[in-house]
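Researcher: Structure for this, please.
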Amino acid sequence: MQREKLLFAVTGVVIGGLAVLLVLSGNPANMGMCIACFLRDITGSLGLHRAGVVQYMRPEILGLSLGAFVTALGAREFRSRGGSAPFVRFFLGMFMMIGALMFLGCPLRDILRISGGDLNAVVGLFGFVSGVLWGVFFLRQGFNLGAARLEPTTQAGGYLFVALVTVMLFLLVAGINFNPEAGGPLFFSKEGPGSMHAPIWIALAAGLVIGFLAQRARLCLSGGFRDFFLIRETGMLLAYGGILVTALILNIVFGKFNLGFANQPVAHTNHIFNFLGLFLLGQCAVFLGGCPLRQIVMASEGDMDAAVAVAGMVAGAAVAHNFMLAASPKGPTGFGEIAVIAGILIVSLIGWAYREEV
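Model: Predicted structure, token format:
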């Protein structure tokens, strides 16, 4: 037990430190590592949305996946598995991303925003915890999407996610451009958050380390709160506490701390939808068995259900920006507000429909 707590503490300290390092190296402020934001940027880089300010093939995500994959292989924990309500998981992933893009960040970025003094993120954290509690309510009512099945004859399906990640990394590093006039196959922002990034090799190395630690620690903020509410387990919350404290100290040291609601980087001050955005994300994360970070790690371990959820998140990013659902520093759009409220209702109906007798 002491060894496990030490792992959580070290994981938190290292990830918090790397997040600040990535900001100092060029990533947007309070966005050293954000799974939802970076998946959105990758979605734009692939041309699946055309919001020109958020397009970049983020090496942090690619490194995260490859780091988790290699670690799972080394620990003999790679298992090709899936088949548990995949289409439902796709839509849950999509709504999870829509909630994240309403708040402008995933749970990890929420903690990093708090460490930078952004009080809007405190409102978001209350929403996230409330969404997790709402999801736990359905778990106690018998919610279950079913168990994933191991592939009986081959592990090939589990490798597809990592193979795709490897192809994207190759395109980024090699700089291949099939159509220079159109700017493809990858698109890159010339301004805005997508144009702000750490050097490729620093970002990739940080992602690899975070992937290693996240795989070993089973890191997940929704899982941490879920386990606390269900069985009073606090290990994963210790890890996120380490991220918060480490990043807070380093932000103060390097002059990156700005306490308040107004004038926060890549954030808005609509408290209702900061709360509801992460409420929706927290609810979806409980139903999926993990937040965006955990979904990428599980997909890299061979979990094809998690890979479907990540695909849903990519689709959610495309839908959010193509249909004006994503918020901006100016605040949420009317379409986005409708989508978040509808998402909470639809996900709640899914929770009710997938109850088993308890």
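Researcher: Any notable elements?
Model: Residues 81 and 151 are 5 Å apart (CA to CA). The chain has a mean pLDDT of 94.
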